[in-house]
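Let us practice reading a record.
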Amino acid sequence: MNTINDMINKLKEALNTELPASKAHIKLAPDDRIEGLLTRQWPPNAQLSAVTLLLFTEDSELKLLLMKRTEDNGVHSGQISLPGGRQETQDKSLQETAIREFFEETGVPLSAGDYLGKLSDLYIPPSNFIVQPFIAFIPQLPKLKPNLSEVKELHTISLADLFAEEAYKKQEVVLRQRGKDSYTIKAPCYQIKELCIWGATAMILCELQMVFKDFGLSR
């Protein structure tokens, strides 16, 4: 049986190997995204961005921090997402982007030493972003101070709940596109209590789940 420290050490090693990438992403992708995910040919004019998957220990479990975006006119309005955003000129690397954005949205300062590695990058057509997911770990989650102009709510979920077979669903979701009318599609998602996690966030989490499964990272 792995301890949490064992799991974190093994996860760090796993992130330095060949990652599942599209093999994982397509499992949680809407049907119209699958072809683009298989080719992984991202548009040259896409903006670079980064997000942080923050893992921490609570009640002897590994948990993850997620956020619900504020309701506005943006393409990701009201969605469950990972803290992060676009790369700015002052950021020397995408990891610096991830650290800066995480602090701006959650009020939690992370350092480079908290980061274990990264998952596969992913293109998000509605916002024309290429997002680079990074994974960080801290032993305990400090007090959160969300930026209420961007963050409606912050949520913590256990990886056990996220990776449970019954969490996988297909639900009706609203797809928003820049400069176009929104419409409803049926998309694969993680449904955990009141949280419906779909789109790019779900695809990223699916790769994390596959890494855990492939490398036997369980308690």
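A brief commentary: The chain has one domain: 4-214.
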